[in-house]
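Z., the sequence and structure:
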Amino acid sequence: MTHKPFDQGLYDSDNPAVNDWIKHLHASGWEAKVNPDKYGVDILAQSPTGNPMNFEVEVKHNWVGKAFRFNTVHIPGRKLKFANDQTTFVIFNHERGQAFLVRGSLIKDSPTIKKKTLYTDNEEFFEIHTNYCQHVAKIIS
């Protein structure tokens, strides 16, 4: 399976999305912080009722504006290690004003596809129908 190689420049340009989601969580009464483990999930959080939750954040640059023009979202196969009941995937649009939330428990049982990307020729992705995603608008950034 082909994986996208780590790109420090891309990471640096997309990493503000993690802080945007932390601000959004704080505004909703959550406690949240960046995970100190750089190989772990992006955000460690606790809901207002005390339930722990992790968040893995990414930006989909081909999603521009409010409208999402596809029926499915794709989560890279390399993120399978985070797919569990305690993790939610946050998929931002390019401007980081809209997002889809995908429960990690859905990932493991989702179909996979392989596709060519800007960075890989045959990368595996989990394909999740948007009916199973929660849409969040007006993200605080």
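The chain has three helices and nine strands. The beta strands are 31-34, 43-46, 52-59, 72-76, 87-92, 98-103, 112-115, 123-129, 134-137.

Let me know what you think.
H.
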